[in-house]
Amino acid sequence: MAVEAIYRGEAQPVFIWLALAALIDATDGTLARRFDVKSWVPQFDGCLLDNIIDFLTYTFIPVVFAYRFELIPPFALPVLALVLFASAYGFCITTAKTDDGYFTGFPNYWNVMIFYFYLLEFPPLINALIMFIFVILVFVPIRYISASTEKLRAITVVVMVLFGVALIIMGATMNDVDKRLVVGSLAAAVYYFAASFYLHFTDKNEIVNTLKQIIPIPADDI
């Protein structure tokens, strides 16, 4: 339905459908565990299905949206191809989600990024440059927090809830959105990256692991 809305040239329904997909994504794992789905269909890999759907809703549809609504200049369209490639890599690496609830590398929030590009009406070239930077960050093994990260969890959940409310308001009023709300809501993104970088770079073991993945330095030399 989101793709169909894209090709009608109607932006608001696109983000409504993507928001619904995000809501399902936030609850499907809990429901699957609650009803012990694995015991009913042990041969079915729900995690694989989750990744396929997430790739479509968090990456592919936002890329199609960026193309259809000309958020990227024509000469920079290869950036969208790089987004697809980087996202496929990000979803497929075995360390995409750590046991302690972190994402490894930028966690493919392209749907949120495209939403802000559309509302803030950045120049297409700026959009392309921002996307290219985050393509690189997909491959940099920095840990990013999630709702299941224990450290700072209470603050993170509060920020996520407030951010979710702001997104709902912006989505409902996006044809005449208050730009002050849009800019102010970016405080959640500032917190997200600041908290992620703080937790990552104050953990010596993670600094060593990051350096070892980027450059082949023996751990004893660090």
What does this protein look like?
There is one protein chain. With 222 residues, this protein is an all-alpha fold. It has one domain. Helix content is 69%, strand content 2%. It has 11 helices and 2 strands. Strands 1-2 form a two-stranded antiparallel ribbon.
Morphology call: globular
Query: Could you give the order of strands across the largest sheet?
Result: 1-2
**Rg:** 18 Å
Distance between the terminal alpha carbons, to the nearest Å? 51 Å
Count of helices?
11
Regions with pLDDT < 50 over 5+ consecutive residues? none
Spell the H/E element sequence: HHHHHEHHEHHHH
Task: Return the average pLDDT rounded to an integer.
Answer: 89
What fraction of the residues are assigned to beta strands by DSSP? under 5%
Q: How many individual β-strands?
A: 2
Helix content: 55-70%
Biggest sheet layout: 2 strands, antiparallel
Structural class of the secondary structure composition? mainly alpha
Domain tally: 1
How would the blueprint of this fold be written?
Elements: H1 2-8, H2 11-34, H3 37-40, H4 46-68, H5 78-92, E1 103-104, H6 110-120, H7 124-139, E2 143-144, H8 153-172, H9 179-185, H10 187-201, H11 204-214
Antiparallel strand pairs: 1-2
Helix pairs in contact: 1-2, 1-4, 2-4, 4-5, 4-6, 5-7
